[in-house]
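User: Fold both of these, please.

Assistant: Here is the first one.
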Amino acid sequence: MMFTIRSGSMTAVITSAGAQLMSLQSADGTQYLWQGDPTYWADRSLTIFPYVARLTDGCYRYRGQIYHMPIHGFAPTSVFSVTEQTDSAVTLTLEGGPALYGQYPFLFRYDIRYRMEETTLHVAITVENKDEKTMYFGLGGHPGINVPLEEGLRFEDYVLEFPPCRPRRVEFTPACFITGRELPFPLEENRLPLRHELFDEDAIVLKGIPGQVTLKSPKGARSVTLNAPDFPVLGLWHMPKTDAPYVCLEPWSSLPSHQDVIEDLEKQADLISLEAMGVYHTEWSLLCR
């Protein structure tokens, strides 16, 4: 099912299939969200849970048992139920239980609430551990933003602008697993000029970013700012070795597996650990201008 929310001059559309954002459009017809052309990438804005990116051999270890899970967890392929809806907000819910135990042996409730406020889409995530044991997970967002946002501009006319910072790039292997190393990633006056070749080796994954990045062009008026103050990792991506007309701005809570390591869920240091019956809450947002 599709759900439409509105506020001010902006409209967002969300589907219960994967709780995925499908459209983010202004009253003048500007579509900020990538529209899923399968030539480049069929999705639009994946909901990441309960693991970020890839697991070695698609599996992890928990208390001596092996569990299998796809890239970015099972949220993208799950059907969510709707637990709240108003003109400007909708909450979608996924509950864990026996049907998911083969992938994830925890009782939980995951709520994602989309709310429009003027030209900002707020995305609030609440995870409830309904189990009697500590729960371990990662989560994040994966919104693709159209580039260019205005006629007459090119992909190369855009930059990613950051607050003053000294980011570090997480080193990945050719198979897109982490090596454990982080390398300096210098910016040009806190800006990264866009060019398609940046993504030839897949995602650029950064630490040391203070929770904000703006996609903009000095030649245009439209921009999108991702605010994600609670997320220590930022992924930047489009389909490698293509001229894909979008960039994904991805807030991540954690990193994927190390190369050739079957991660132990209880020992992976960057995962969120939530005590029995505990509640975890975080938010990110997209400001569209």
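And the second sequence with its predicted structure:
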Amino acid sequence: MTVIGLPDGEADRLARLALTEDLSLGADVTTVATVAEDATDVGEIVARADGALCGLDIARAVFAAVDPDLDFRTRVHDGDRVRRGDLIATVSGSTRSILTGERSALNLLCMLSGVATLTARWVEAVAGTGAVIRDTRKTVPGLRAAQKYAVRCGGGQNHRMGLGDQALIKDNHVVAAGGVVPALRAVRALRPDIACEVECTLPEQVEQACADGATLVLLDNMTLEATRESVAIARRFGTRTESSGGLRLDNAAEVASTGVDYLAVGALTHSAPTLDIALDLR
């Protein structure tokens, strides 16, 4: 599986961030005390559960930042599906260096693989409906690029990366502007070059937003009946639709069957359990 990778320098930035937390109070006391300075070993990074993989380049960057002489070799790639017991990668060299970088590397690898794994479950849940699973901005501060990369590794797509690359008019913007149409026109006047999505809670709002040129309408916490009605309205205008709110894995297929183009799932990044991955010395 091929996905668009991390931004340049992002793996190194995250490695530095993780190691700053681990080593800001000094060297790894336990490892220095228990492991001979000249000891060498091979650490095997192994899946302890089935899932989708993400974060290998970040793990590599962590070990390289600890010790550039460590040899990190992967057996699989980001985006691949792994099974419990699969060998993911090996890292060989100084035992002290391996153990010093172990937890920082695994923290990021397990977390991002968890996001990819949960995304893959959502993608599987709506398979055959034509709907696409997308993430939101509900990401951990400082980890947005990596978490959104993990969504791509799981087969999902990204929504906007920040507040300036796309516009999303939500309920509070509507209140502040005095209505859906005034809000949409204000955004168009300021930035006519970017896509503009409008959050709607009623089919009547969908009609207004589509008629005034919204790029996409976000159907927020709508019933299935209202979602179908809104999709039909949007299709008359050639406007895409995205469902959000109240989405669960067990109702994803039913919502997707209404004909919406996207399902916006904040849980992909804010509630994904980590994938169990371990490092064992041979």
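The chain has two domains: 10-123+273-281, 126-270.
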